[in-house]
Design goal:
155 residues; two-stranded antiparallel sheet
Length: 155
Amino acid sequence: SFLVRYGLRALFGPDSKQYDMQDPSYLSVFGTGITSSQIVSLLLVAAFAVLCYVLIYRTKNGAQIRAFASNEDLARISGINPIRVAVLVWFLAGVVGGLAGVFTGTFALVDHEVGWDMILVLIMVVIIGGVGSVRGALIAGLAVGIFTSAISLWT
């Protein structure tokens, strides 16, 4: 990770970058300002979360992922190709990570260290939600997001 982080710094420079976006329209919700780009991002994230949930809990590939995560040896004996499942999981993780970076870049400056200040919060969400539980991670992520936003408004 250090190689990638500092490789990006060498490639793009140490200065923070910002997406070139149109000026968003502003709305007031419960006395708090929200932009049109935030609403679009929220809707896209919600749609992608539902898509991931459906993929993992309602498809054959999702059943294979869950079986492989639960008991690797039994999944292999049942005829599940572990390499294909691992590649699919890593692909999905890369897509989700990339989208997280894109959505983060719509609201903040981007540089080679973006996300490092969130690592402890991410680990906390996984622990609270339960390691290996997609439902738990979604619920815990939503709860932590609401909680941190409420504290930000309160202080």
